[in-house]
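Journal club side-thread
Mid-discussion, someone asked how the predicted structure for our own chain would compare to the paper's figures. Pasting it here so we can look after the session.
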Amino acid sequence: MNTLVSFIMIKNDVEIQKDFDVYPTEVLDTIKQKGLLTNTENSPISLISTSTYRIDYTYKKLENDIPWGIELDFGTFEFYQQLQIKIMSDHYELKRKDDYLEVLKFTIKDVLKSDWKNIIWLVDKDAEILSTEIYPCIYRVENLMRQLINEVMTKKFGIAWWNSYVPMEIQEKHRQRIKKYKQIVDGFKNVDEKLMSIDVGDLRSILEIEIKEWTPKFDLKINDFINGISSMNLETLKNKLLEQSIVKKNLWSEYFCKYLPEDFIESFEKLKEDRNHIAHNKLLDRHAYNTIYKLAQDIEEALKKALNKVEMELISTERKQDLMWQEEHEQQKEEQYLKYIAFEYGVNIRSSNGIINLYNEYISEFHSDLHSNLRFRNDIEISDYKDISLENECGELFKMIYKINQKELTINYNISIINDTQGDESTIDIVASTADDEENLFKTPVDYTNGEISFYDDQATYMPRKEDFFNTSALEELMIRTLEIIDIKFPNMREEIDLNMYSIIKDGGLSPVAEELACQECGEDYICVDQDYGVFGQCLNCGEINEINECERCQCHYESYENSDVCESCLDYIMNM
């Protein structure tokens, strides 16, 4: 019979307290108890030599009775007793999904192990079939890893990336192996083989390369070393310099993490250990096989997805131009079709870009109307309108700056949904916020409904079903709410002073603004001299800061000039005394 598994039990210096012929019986009984023997009538134990026993039995697999043989061969070598076990069969087909032989060999081992000090495995074709099946998957993973590194690095940094980024110890490993590598694979001697001739662990290291920049700082120990006052070994000096370095480029965080799962490095490190186990011909059981195989499959799938992303994102200049042309061409075709629908059936069915353009048209008009409503508010500055973009789900439309205290009110957009399907609704939220408020001041949804046409069988033609509709009333509400917030957050100080001036004059109070002194910016007489209203010298009409003083002699206010604490009139009076 063909030997499928063979191992030796070594007694060492421990005497066995059993007769040799007890072992075959114990093995046979355990096989029966485990249900590993289906024909219990014909299972004799034979003594085929002085110290060799043989168990012959059958195990039914599907419709076939498969003969099995187990040999127990006792012998003494160099004063130590040994027991060699052979499990044999000519008709058993080794398969990963069939665990009969695995259960059988471990059952026999467990029966005998307590009497022997060492167990040495000699032959295991069952474990071999597991290793030979799993290694192609690991081979694919390694080469996918090499492909990913080569594609990302050469497309990002060109052919010089190896010398610019790879650590010296990895480069040295490549140099030591390259001659032998090219001697063996003559057909690839003109191919860049760098990643082929380094270890799988080095591939992982490349993913995590950090490029550091030395930022010198004074260090007393380094200074003493330079001046020969003290000694320092190279490793200590390197660590000192590393402490003074900053990371300028991290290949994982800047590049590879965009394409691979967050836990990829950890998973690949586990597979590296498993790969070494298999590559060095270590034994496998089915539990280990399943664990390693699943990990390898997960990593292989992650690498394939990463390569697909790289292919989509890291594209050549020529490919970018082709894609732009195709996109523009498709967009033009779609726009022509939608124009035809609008002309033929009087219904506007807009694409996503068309819907965004419509929103920008209406909201930029709202921006202009807001300008008109605030045309007399010189104390408020409104920034230019920024278009809504499909590429960004949210963003700033414009902001208003209150020039009295420089506070800002920002109007933002948030795309809830853009739906270019006929008859469906799109929504963009318009949101107002300030830096002082933890929550948004308000949010106004603005809706748009796309047009729709339907085919009528009885008339064999298309007919309008729904006209497109933009909810302008939402923008009217938005205008009301925006003006209300402006009145609260950005009070009109000029208006407030005008309202209070009558009672101030009537009650004999002092004016909060400088009399007969116009603002240098807007020319209005609203320069603040009462800090209950604002900053001294600030124009409450436009926010401009004017350089003014209060005359020590007559208490009037005047534009300040050097070396004078009195106004020009009082200065003339003093000079002429």
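Post-session note: The mean pLDDT is 85.
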